[in-house]
Amino acid sequence: MKKKLAEIIKKAVLELFDLEQADFAVEYPKDEKFGDYATNVAMVLAKKLGKSPMEIAEAIKLQITNYKLQTFEKIEVVAPGYINFYLSEKYFQNKVVEINLEKEKFGEGEAEKKEKIMVEYSQPNTLKEFHIGHLRNVLIGSTIVEVLRKAKYNVVAANYIGDTGSHIAKCLWGIEKFHANENLDAIENKAEFLGKTYTQAVQAIGENPNYEQEFKSLQNKLEDGDIKLQALWQKTRQWSLDEFHSIYELLGANFDVYFYESEEEIEGKKIVPELLERKIIEKSEGAIIANLEEYGLGVLVLVRKDGSALYGLKDIPLAIKKFDKFEIDTSIYLIDVRQDLYFKQLFKILELYGFNKKFVHIGYDFVTLKGGEGMSSRKGNVILARDLISEIISKVEVKFPNSPDPLSIALGALKFTMLKYSTGTKIEFDIEESVKLEGATSPYVQYAHARICSILKKAEEAGVDFAKADLSLLIHEKELSLAKELDKFPELIEEISKTYEVQKIPYYAIRLADKFHSFYSACKVIDEENLELTKARLNLITAVKIVLAETLNLIGVSAPEKM
RNA sequence: GCGCCGGUAGCUCAGUGGAUAGAGCAGUAGCCUUCUAAGCUAUUGGUCGCAGGUCCGAUUCCUGCCCGGCGCACCA
User: Fold this and answer.
1) What is the topology classification, in CATH, of domain A121-367?
2) 289-318 on A, CB < 7 Å from strand B
3) How far is the CA of A404 from the C1' of B51 (A)?
4) pLDDT in tens, A375-421
5) Which of A387, A443, A384, A369 shows the shortest CA–CA distance to A410?
6) Is the pTM of this model over 0.90?
7) Can you tell me the ipTM of this complex?
8) CATH topology (fold) of A403-554
């Protein structure tokens, strides 16, 4: 509707005034009493046209009124020059019908988009533990994927596993040093063992310079293909991958393709001569670097002086492969904001290489612990994803002993909490706060859904057939307010598919649930005295149920029938 | 030093070139013989970090400053 209205306004403006184009905004007014949509077009044009905003607004209002569109109930001009549009009740009543017809397809993009987008996210390092900081990435990433799909983009969800590099060597060294005599295969929680050993190794190496030597020599042996170490690498790598897959399954995150750093490393080394030849990179202080000072991007080291490859070198062939092999148009990297400079450097190198494509880095700020510093696997001051989930489950069980599915409520609460922050906000994680289940949380939204299901079940048991209903009976303030919120859903999808502002989904879900709860206490749906109104309202809440479930679905939260 | 991000109610956070700046939590006062009170209704609470500038209009854009975080050559 927003788009349509913008076109109508533009048409009116261009007909009325001698203009090439018009720049203006169509927005939701702050208050419903100012109508359903408002535009500032008159104020924007005032100066250019040398007329007062009110005068222009009146002229536009008259022009649009002459179109005799049934969509509008009223068009109003208000000082200092707003034009407020009031949509008709009929429009919203029809919207309810439309949603019930389209069902879960409501809100989808109108046509398949031509653009193919790859979203790379998660990128965990093997042998490190999966902590709650990693959760933010997975949850934002899978939400972006879902939203883009809903908006009808062709999306490839990609993961890039960090299965090589010094952190691996450190952990393997730690195993050999401290756990050589243990039967590794018998360890029950292998992921935890690896994580702990990694932290142990980092600390030991930091404290004892001799260990530094030992670990370095192990790293060299590993890179030279030492058979025993290779086997250990393979085995532990698989343990980590198994753990990651299990966590993704728990969270409902899916990937279409996995890339591995250990494979890209080989490709990266192949293009070094060409990059050197073309003077995109150079030798410096024994290392190979890209000097990007002239672009204000500093220096990026690609190859260490010992000849080993760094992450930048691996990202170059991978970036190219994504376009060439997968035929994508846009490549999105979801990685925390601390790597912002790195991505600017990477994209610049690719540009200099002649690979000028659409690259996007979506950065989000990291997760810290309340009262502490940033979580770091190296320091071992982490809260593991699994531990947090267990803790939330136990809270749910205590608070709602009859809950049929505490796991999905707990996961919902976690996802919602993680996603409701904008990406520029650091999340100061407070476990106590995160497991609260009242207010702006997923249970609030899920509860609305469960309440609807409960009413629908009751209606079904009473044998009410509401397939045919007179929706024009929906004139109550709370009913229309609900329908108006439903109408905004497609615009929300469209917006987020362009801005990636995923926090808007939880906020939308809260607003919709809020309006439902408010309607629920003001209006009785099933009213034996008034069967026609009952049918109309059953249609309304069915539409609300569809949109609530779809909204939750986008952020991977279940919509329970019962709570 | 240079760069990026943040500074909005007691707390945690949304939001916006425009109409009285919002939500949750916390506080206060109410609401379960009625479709689930994980709920509803009402209410207290803000010089939108500071100072300038642009604009008809700035919390929003620009500049400077202050505070916090992060990044800037061999981690990813």
Assistant:
1) Rossmann fold (3.40.50)
2) 289, 291, 296, 298-299, 301, 303-306, 308, 310-311
3) 58
4) 777 776 788 889 888 888 888 888 778 888 899 999 999 999 999 99
5) A443
6) yes
7) 0.95
8) Isoleucyl-tRNA Synthetase; Domain 1 (1.10.730)
